[in-house]
Inverse folding.
């Protein structure tokens, strides 16, 4: 019997391809490095940052904490749309576009 993967239990937002993720990172309004941080700190920081952005601005959170890929988008709710990029080596970027 095989073990479930994170993809089986985590409701991550739509994934981005590498090229799109790099372009969005280059144009991001704000980047937060949350590597090594666990919930709820990334959610709190994302909510604070999103509240200070203008509509259309992009916040990027870099993380290695898989639950953040689900919890951060939920925390910002309807204030931002979310997409995720995963590197394949345990690193993620959460892209949040302010509504």
């Amino acid at each position: 019997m095989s073990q479930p993967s994170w993809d089986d239990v985590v409701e991550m937002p739509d994934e981005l391809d590498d090229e799109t993720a790099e372009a969005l990172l280059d144009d991001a309004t704000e980047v937060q490095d949350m590597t090594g941080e666990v919930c709820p700190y990334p959610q709190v920081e994302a909510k604070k940052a999103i509240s200070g952005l203008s509509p259309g601005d992009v916040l990027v959170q870099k993380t290695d904490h898989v639950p953040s890929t689900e919890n951060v988008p939920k925390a910002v709710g309807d204030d931002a749309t979310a997409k995720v990029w995963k590197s394949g080596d345990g690193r993620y970027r959460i892209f949040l576009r302010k509504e």
In short: The two ends are 43 Å apart (CA to CA). Residues 13 and 83 are 5 Å apart (CA to CA).
